[in-house]
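ok so I'm stuck.
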Amino acid sequence: MATLGIIGAGAIGTRLAQQAITAGIDVVLANSRGPETLAETVARLGARARAATPAEAARAGDRVVLSIPLAAYRQLPVAELAGKVVLDTSNYYASRDGRLPRLDTGELTTSELVQQHLAGAHLVKAFNSISDHHIPALARPAGAPDRTALPIAGDDPRAKADAAELISRLGFDTVDAGPLSESWRFEPETDPYVLPYSSDPDAIRASWVRLVEALRNGTPPQLAAPDPGAPLPAARLRALLAGASRKLTADRMIA
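replied:
not stuck anymore, here's the structure
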């Protein structure tokens, strides 16, 4: 594996860039504001990283990670991502992304919507259900007894196998949750989402309550203290996925 393209240089994108570099993978990182705005980030990541436009990152990557707000999915470079295995980390928050009726009603999952736009790509939902700070905290070598598992979903079995290989190099086992139509099983506020990777789920829930209150009151949210994380084995994740209930926008605490 020569190069990982990453479109989106926020918390998840930069954490995955660091994991890839630690695993000996070159990274081409892009954002919506231009390569020049990533100079400090790339310098911090080191010699294996370089900045580019989204189209350039898509072309350069043997595999590509999308880590952008869902509202920007129509700006993704369709032609350059055609034929590629693309890991989609997106989550839908109407308060941030604007109302998308087909997601509100459950007609589509988030990644089905992105896949429709990227018709020629092989999309795999991944890394949307874990907090960014838990990525380096919980990554372990293959075979480690406390290795954490992440859910994936996709319509192409070969793409899922390819994504699982990459994710393993980044430090995690995977559990196949099925096609993209089943990826709701690990979307926001379902049982496999975020809390099982936390050492103190109650504190995370309390921080969500405070965030909702801040949004309602128009006040700055109080951020939770960083959580050290707790390993989630594959067997436990399978059980959580099997028992998950769908959380549509109207059912969620944070819409």
